[in-house]
Design goal:
By secondary structure, the chain is mainly α. The chain contains five helices and two strands, in the order H-H-H-E-E-H-H. Strand 1 and strand 2 form a beta hairpin.
Length: 104
Amino acid sequence: MKSRNELNTIRRILESARHGATKSRIMHDTYLSSEKTSGYLKILQENKLLRCDIGNNLYHTTEKGFQILDESNELNEFLYKVDPVFSDIDSLGEFSDQFRGMRE
């Protein structure tokens, strides 16, 4: 499921830029190519989840980005309370994929 992976990538980028990070650092932390990283950075900036300091080319998570991270973490905690098998959004998606495979 593509959107689940994208959400996880967005979370990793926002986490990487929490205290300021170069594009290279973000690429290293997220295991993305330069081209894919550039695409994500552009979209995250357009949606005001990330900002870039022009002078030093450091990306920073914005207040809105921190809200997304906080809510994502709360969802992960809720999923864990429901059932430790669902310890994060990715495992919920994997379960959904398995269930979908059983129905087909």
